[in-house]
TrEMBL record:
It comes from the Eukaryota. It comes from Panicum miliaceum (Proso millet). Gene3D superfamilies: 1.10.520.10. This is Peroxidase 1. Disulfide bonds join 55-134, 88-93. The active site is at 86 (proton acceptor).
Length: 210
């Protein structure tokens, strides 16, 4: 997972919109049935205490690293939430948006709809910190989910328990990003794109307001 440099800068969203966006991302994790499983294993549901025995400090590490970064660059809060949403909308919440392209495959990260995504450096830093504390334990997919939750809390929104145990995707294709609704497009097409994920017009309005 390599860091990606971008020059895009988006305005930080109000806390209410951040909450709405995270709620939609969470819903996508439960409604998407693509090639990447969201659960810890076959037939195993996500669990709020998933890392209690294997990496009890995981959430604290993620929270501290995220808080330090957002204090330095407040607009990262909205960027992290957007990164989680873009990941979840394609193949489910599997961190496939973090995978790098290869000579024979263009990954999601380098697809046109994802060209303005930010936060890759921070995710890589948090992952490195967790690997030093608990090697080969916490998935990148769970890191994204936790960082998105913490982004809401750091933006004066609420905080709540996050069910964990997602598996990281092993494949990533720019072609699959056609599932992402365009930033500007025909309203009917946008509604159809969201409906295909089990989402409605309210979700569409929340996401396109960020």
């Amino acid at each position: 997972m390599a860091a990606a440099a971008t020059t895009c800068c988006r305005r930080s969203a109000p806390a209410a919109l951040l909450v709405a966006l995270l709620a939609v991302a969470a819903l996508l994790c439960t409604t998407t049935t693509g090639g990447s499983a969201a659960a810890a294993g076959a037939g195993q549901p996500l669990d709020v205490g998933y890392y209690n025995k294997t990496c009890s400090a995981a959430e604290e590490i993620v929270r501290n690293e995220t808080a330090a970064a957002v204090r330095e660059s407040p607009d990262l809060a909205a960027a992290l939430l957007r990164l989680h949403y873009h990941d979840c909308f394609v193949q489910g919440c599997d961190a496939s948006v973090l995978l790098d392209s290869t000579p024979t495959n263009t990954a999601e990260k380098d697809a046109m709809p994802n060209g303005s995504l930010r936060g890759f450096d921070l995710v890589a830093r948090v992952k490195d910190r967790l690997e030093r504390a608990c090697p080969a334990t916490v998935s990148c997919a769970d890191i994204l989910a936790l960082m998105a939750r913490d982004a809401v809390a750091l933006s004066k929104g609420p905080s709540w328990p996050v069910a964990l145990g997602r598996r990281d995707g092993r494949t990533s294709s720019a072609g699959s990003c056609g599932e992402l609704p365009p930033l500007h497009g025909d309203v009917n097409l946008l509604v159809q794109a969201f409906a295909a994920k089990g989402l409605d017009v309210k979700d569409l309005v929340a996401l396109h307001a960020v």
